[in-house]
Specification:
By secondary structure, this protein is α+β, with helices and mostly antiparallel strands. Helices cover about 20% and strands about 25% of the residues.
Amino acid sequence: MIDKVSRPFRYIALFKPYDVLCQFSDAQGRPTLKSLVPITGIYPVGRLDRDSEGLLLLTDDGGLAHHLTDPRYEHPKTYLAQVERVTDSEALGTLRQGVWLNDGRTRPAHVELLTTPPALPDRSPPIRFRKNVPTSWLRLTIREGRNRQVRRMTAAVGHPTLRLVRIAIGPISLGDLEPGRWRELDLDEIARLRAIRDDTPRLHPSRESRSRGRWSKPF
């Protein structure tokens, strides 16, 4: 008989493709994680929207997952965003200082305008290009997880997002994974994730209880 208490947790990194729901079932028959990751008992750590791509962590370690998705801990998440038009210094400054959205002002973000497009796999289907509208690429790191936050931030400064790819969650990076492919985290990556949890001061019990909820809430 297997000792479930001592059984090692599973930690999976997946390149979630475009148009895949961040769940394992769907009543409408839309593409889900089930067709990509044939492992039972693991769940997404946070979520990516259906029209977003990139790094998704999955695990059965609920304690660590809760810690990574709790917005009070401000764990960084890094994205590559292809946006309409060439982003100017004013828009970059606003993104860095915080953008006013309908649910309040965002926290300051680290934002970099890339001089060349990043080396990413092609998206299927490709984004819709407009002949007379150039695009630019941004690298953004945020420390909160509001619904469709990056898309709303870039739209608020006049640069709607055309393609969004998450490339890192804390110390874990997407690396050279291809869309739809996954891998087990190595021992060093697992240790770095656990170090984040162990090195972070615990919340006051009353505040921690208010922050608890379903740990697969959206990023």
